[in-house]
Every structure is written in C-alpha cells, then in structure tokens.
C-alpha cells in the first residue's frame, strides 16, 4: 500500500471512529497539505531515499505537547483557545523525519487521571464500553483503532503503559531524560517522560530512534557526555551479549503478586513467564520491598510538583481571563475537579506544617525504591559510581501493567472514586519514581471454556535498568503475540 493510501485510510478511520472521542483536534480531511506530504514521501520511497522509517506515516500527539498548527489545550477549559507559537522538540523531530502530524489526542486534563474521563472535551471511549486508561487514553485508542500509525503521549506515573494495557497496544516509556520535554506542558518535572504508543514494538522502536537525541533547550535532557557513559557501560561485552545469546535472567517481583490481582491478569503473567522459560531464559524471584510504598510517595510528589507548575495559570500569564475576580475565577472555573484536587493535595504537602512529614519522607522513599531496583538488576545504574556488573542480579523484570482488566467506562464516570483510579497505577509508579525504561505489551488470555486467545488482552510490563531501553524493547518483542 502506498503511503498516500495509508494516510487516507487513517484519516477515514478518524471520521468513522469520531464517537470514540480519541481526538480533540483531528487531521483536517479537506486539507491538501498532508496529501502533498504523503505523495512526496511516496516519491522518496520509490527513489529509495526515504527520510526515515517514519517518512509519510501519520503520528498523533497528546494534546499537552505543543504544536503550531493545532491548538494545545491539555483538555482544559483554561487553555481551550490556546495555540502555541512553536512546536515541541519531539514534534519537530518527527516532522524532520518525514512524518505527518495526525492531530492532537484527548487526555485527562493536564495528564491527571487514569481513565481519560477528566477532559473538558468529553471522555475517551474505548471499544466495548470499557475504560481507555489514562491519561494518554486518546493516544492509545487512536492507535488501537488505526486512526494513526503511532502516537506520542506522556507518562508521569503510568500514563502511557496503563492505556496500552487497556487497549491492547504497545506502550513504551523510555528512561527519564532520553527524550526531550521541551514544549511539553509540565505536570511533574522530575517524573514526566514522553512515551510512545504503537501496534507493534518494532514501530515504537522506530519512533524512539528518531527522538532519542539530546536537546540543549531541555534542562532535564541527558547530556551527550552522560549518554556516552550510558552507552559505554551498557555496551560492554558481557552486557551486550544479553541481546544475542541465551539465557536472559528474568526477575519476577514478589511484591507485585498481590491478592487483588485478577485471575485473567495473573494467568497472562504466568503465560508470559512460561513463554520466556520455553525460549531458554531463566525465571527467578526478586524482592522489591520498598515498592509497597511507591504509590503513596508518588501521590505526594506528583501533586506537589503539579501545584507549583500550575501556579502560572492565573488568568494573567496563562489561562482563561475573566473580568471579575480574575484569579479566583480562573482557578475555580478554569480547572476541573481532579486538577483542583491535586493542586490542593500538593499545596498541603508543601506547606510548612506538612513538608517534613510528607514531601521529605516521600523523597526518601523514592530513593529507597531506586535502591531496590539497582540491587535487583545485573547491570548497575550506568550513572552511578558502583561496580558495573552483578552475577546474582536479573536482566529485566516482568510483571503486570495493571492489577485488573479495564473497568466499564460508566463505572469510572459514575461509580468509582479518586482512590480507585489512583490504585490502578500501583504497578506502573515504581518504574516512574526510579526513571527506568518500561514497556507494556499485550498478552492474550483464555475464556471461561479455556479457549486460548479469546478473552481479550492483559498488559504485561517489562522493566529494565536505567538506559537499558533496547533490551526492554527486545524482551517486549519476545512476548508479542503471546497467547494467540
């Protein structure tokens, strides 16, 4: 199929799936610009000179990533008329690679949510009336329903991986600092990571290869010197052989085997481990005791950073302007209930009375979570002054992405409270606190009669040491199609 025909098919799917509300600003069907871009990419492909593997492909962007040609709303009333004067670095990188911007996808307001129902533009609908996950639910549904070739979102505590698990797609959160955050509206600076959603791991890798570059405009972007240090440590002979020879050492975190784990997710987890074992890899139990406290720490640290970042939306610098009671109106009417809840949580934990008991303690827990991961992996953290290799550690960790299948969308809107939504992040938050690469890959389950591959999918998460993104993607490929 030519790239033009593929682009037209994606655009047609955007129109046919409009009820799913995956896009806030979809691709303009009547515009001749993207037709010309696709035709030019077809010509380059025929001449054997494509710009990249993304040349002529339609890539969608979560609507908290700034674009000049589409509004950037963050799914919030306070930004519903805002258009950025510049493109985010990741947008520019994708366009330089020949890709076509397929529109801006729906999300939980400012990325705060687990089901993509906290949007000023209406909630995202997954197929079969199930939750699409959040906050990058629109990006995941757009990929799952072939409204785009791939999409970019953001992952603060699981906002790429949870939607991937709920929609049967691949969701990849790279190591913190590898992809530029310049031009991405901040939620929590020390946690925010641009991530990739795609139908296949190979597509996610192609997008990652285009974006994995230092950006001097982003203060959190890993410097060229640090990147070379990561590559040199993780490309040592005894480490790079993990990608080529057997066996890998697969870690199973015991603390993730919680009693609330649904039978279908547990079955998919077992099936994943069985598949890797059959391929010759060894499976070993691993203990990560401090991950039991990771979720509590996250919901102190992330709201604290959010309350600081959202202070600029005061109706003067940013935000909807009201003629009377400017600040109060902008904050009260401009933000939705979940955003206001997290601002209040963050403001409290940063107050003088609560700082030591909440924020400081959460930072200590974060450090202990990082130490647990470092103790578990065979490869040492490449930016730490520690021995480069452990004979007793594991190469990757395998665990569920979410403790249960996607709930009914009606339940998430009408029945579940905020705490129920927060609990969905219990398996994704630890890797975010440690800044580690993680990918959610779909693994198929059985129905009640034991018919294999007929009961939908569960997301299985692969977590690696910092900078070990390529190994994480490799193991994700080993698991693709498991259960079919």
Automatic annotation (TrEMBL):
Record key words, sorted: ATP-binding, Ligase, Mitochondrion, Nucleotide-binding, Protein biosynthesis, Transferase
GO cellular component: glutamyl-tRNA(Gln) amidotransferase complex; mitochondrion
Gene Ontology BP term (one): mitochondrial translation
Signal peptide segment: none
Predominant localisation class: mitochondrion
Domain Amidase: 20-473
Domain of life: Eukaryota
Active-site residue list: 62, 135, 159
EC number(s) on file: 6.3.5.7
Catalyzed reactions: L-glutamyl-tRNA(Gln) + L-glutamine + ATP + H2O = L-glutaminyl-tRNA(Gln) + L-glutamate + ADP + phosphate + H(+)
InterPro entries with a match to the protein in the record: Amidase, Amidase_CS, Amidase_dom, AS_sf, GatA
EC category name: ligase
Pfam families: Amidase
GO function terms (MF aspect): ATP binding; glutaminyl-tRNA synthase (glutamine-hydrolyzing) activity; transferase activity
Compartment annotation: Mitochondrion
HAMAP family cross-referenced by the UniProt entry: GatA (MF_00120)
Quaternary organization: Subunit of the heterotrimeric GatCAB amidotransferase (AdT) complex, composed of A, B and C subunits.
Family: Belongs to the amidase family. GatA subfamily.
Function: Allows the formation of correctly charged Gln-tRNA(Gln) through the transamidation of misacylated Glu-tRNA(Gln) in the mitochondria. The reaction takes place in the presence of glutamine and ATP through an activated gamma-phospho-Glu-tRNA(Gln).
Entry protein name: Glutamyl-tRNA(Gln) amidotransferase subunit A, mitochondrial
């Amino acid at each position: 199929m030519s790239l033009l025909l593929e682009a037209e098919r994606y655009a047609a799917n955007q129109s046919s799936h409009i009820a799913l509300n995956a896009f806030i600003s979809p691709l303009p069907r009547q515009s001749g610009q993207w037709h010309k871009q696709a035709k030019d990419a077809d010509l380059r492909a025929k001449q054997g000179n494509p710009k990249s593997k993304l040349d002529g492909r339609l890539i969608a962007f979560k609507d908290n990533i700034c674009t000049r040609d589409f509004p950037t709303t963050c799914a919030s009333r306070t930004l519903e008329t805002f258009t950025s004067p510049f493109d985010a670095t990741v947008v520019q990188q994708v366009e330089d690679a020949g890709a076509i911007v397929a529109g801006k996808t729906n999300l939980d307001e400012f990325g705060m949510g687990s089901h993509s129902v906290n949007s000023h533009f209406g909630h995202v609908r997954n197929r079969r009336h199930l939750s699409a996950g959040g906050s990058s639910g629109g990006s995941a549904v757009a990929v799952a329903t072939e409204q785009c070739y791939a999409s970019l979102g953001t992952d603060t505590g699981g906002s790429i991986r949870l939607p991937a698990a709920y929609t049967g797609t691949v969701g990849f959160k790279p190591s913190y600092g590898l992809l530029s955050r310049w031009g991405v509206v901040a939620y929590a600076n020390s946690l925010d990571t641009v991530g990739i959603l795609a139908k296949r791991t190979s597509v996610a890798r192609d997008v990652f290869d285009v974006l994995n570059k230092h950006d001097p405009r982003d203060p959190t972007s890993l410097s060229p010197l640090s990147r070379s240090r990561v590559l040199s440590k993780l490309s040592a002979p005894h480490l790079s052989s993990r990608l080529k020879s057997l066996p890998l050492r697969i870690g199973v975190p015991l603390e993730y085997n919680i009693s609330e784990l649904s039978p279908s997710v547990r079955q998919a987890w077992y099936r994943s481990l069985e598949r890797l074992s059959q391929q010759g890899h060894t499976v070993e139990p691993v203990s990560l005791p401090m991950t039991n406290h990771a979720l509590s720490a996250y919901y102190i640290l992330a709201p604290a950073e959010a309350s600081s970042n959202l202070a600029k939306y005061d109706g003067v610098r940013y935000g909807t302007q009201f003629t009377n009671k400017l600040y109060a109106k902008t904050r009260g009417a401009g933000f939705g209930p979940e955003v206001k809840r997290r601002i209040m949580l963050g403001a409290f934990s940063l107050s003088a009375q609560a700082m030591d008991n909440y924020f400081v303690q959460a930072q200590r827990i974060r450090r202990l979570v990082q130490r647990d991961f470092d103790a578990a992996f065979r490869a040492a953290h490449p930016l730490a002054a520690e021995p480069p290799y452990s004979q007793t550690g594991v190469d990757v960790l395998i665990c569920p992405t979410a403790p249960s299948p996607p709930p009914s969308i009606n339940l998430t809107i009408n029945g579940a409270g905020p705490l129920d939504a927060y609990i969905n992040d219990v398996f994704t938050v630890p890797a975010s606190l440690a800044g580690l690469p993680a990918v959610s890959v779909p693994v198929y389950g059985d129905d009640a009669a034991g018919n294999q591959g007929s009961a939908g999918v569960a997301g299985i998460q692969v977590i690696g040491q910092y900078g070990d993104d390529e190994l994480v993607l490799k193991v994700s490929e080993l698991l693709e199609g498991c259960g079919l």
